[in-house]
What does this fold into?
Amino acid sequence: MARYTEVAQDSAWGAIDPWAILLRRQIHRHPELGLETEKTSVLVESTLDELGIEHKRPITYGVTGVIGPDTGPAILLRADMDGLPVEEATGLPFSSEIAGRMHACGHDAHTAMLLGAARYLKQHEAELNRPVVLMFQPAEEGPGGALPMIEAGILQNPEVAHAVMVHVDSDLPAGVIGLKVGAAMASPNDFRIIVSGRGGHGAHPDKGVDAIVASSAIIQACQTLVSREQDPIDPLVVTFGTIAGGYRENVLADRVTMTGTIRILEPMRREAILSRFRELVTTIAAAYRAQVDINIHRGYPPLVADETFTRQVGNILEAALGSGHVAWLGHPSMGGEDFAYIAERVPATNLHVGVVGEGSQSGLHSPNFILNETAIGTGARALAAIALLAAVD
Ligand SMILES: [Zn+2]
Ligand SMILES: [Zn+2]
It folds into this structure.
């Protein structure tokens, strides 16, 4: 037990914590979007150089580093680096210097947590009984950076046996780490539907095909996917986010375009629900004599946290941070997460790092989002403790 608390209470953190916070602020000033995390990648690489950690770029702006032995089942620690197209309104002295961009999802803090853990682990490299793969990925907010990095081979050489990600959580206090066993985050699937009818005079609807009436029937019918076709205790969301069509009050609309999102938690249900969605939309349109064109973009798969590994991580964190610092979360989130592609391949878990505390405000993706920076040290300690202490199997 002593070894666990030693990691979290090591005096080395006295130097690492402020250093990681400065790195986080530097990243916060210069948010980058999607796959184009060029400056952040360069900063990560120069920091790894400074720490004497070997690194490479499996994709243009994604970085991996390795600490510890060369072979053996590795543990992968993942941080994402991308920001959001949000105009920052926090007024922080280290606010975004790029108009219309902000680190509003805390990925700046994730990168700093992983660098903090890396610095600690490098100092304790001799104690590592397995390789630690550090993964810094772009484009978590889309179009996705995890899958291209997997395809570039990051789960091999050394062979990855377990993986851990961090994400800030604006529902938990700083100092606390939340864990969720099983289905933890949803698969977001976006759609676009074009309903085509036949235009005409609004006074003579019988002479045309009204795309607006057909569309309203489609919207209503699709709600029954949730209410009549899905197990009531298994979450599903069907949201129509936009609808556009028509010309003026006395003209039959010949065309309506609608977009929306379908979010599913249970991996086995995804294809069944999407296929029923397609069937409902097509047959309702036909019943109203309209034509329909449906485009579905399958998003990230659901994120499922491995039960055995998550329990093991929970035991390590309870011993390292104290049991009051670990929260077992009951509810999944209907948000998406591309770490799901890694969790499909190796036992994995998500550390929900609480960020509510002095100075914090608002939630993720908000222009006013401020996190309590002590969370960076908590996340770094958690990652370091897991890398040092998680059993190989
Ligand atoms: Zn986000
Ligand atoms: Zn995020």
The chain has a mean pLDDT of 96. Residues 187-297 form a domain with the Alpha-Beta Plaits fold (CATH 3.30.70.360). The radius of gyration is 24 Å. Residues 105, 107, 140, 167 surround zinc ion (ligand 2) (CB under 6 Å).
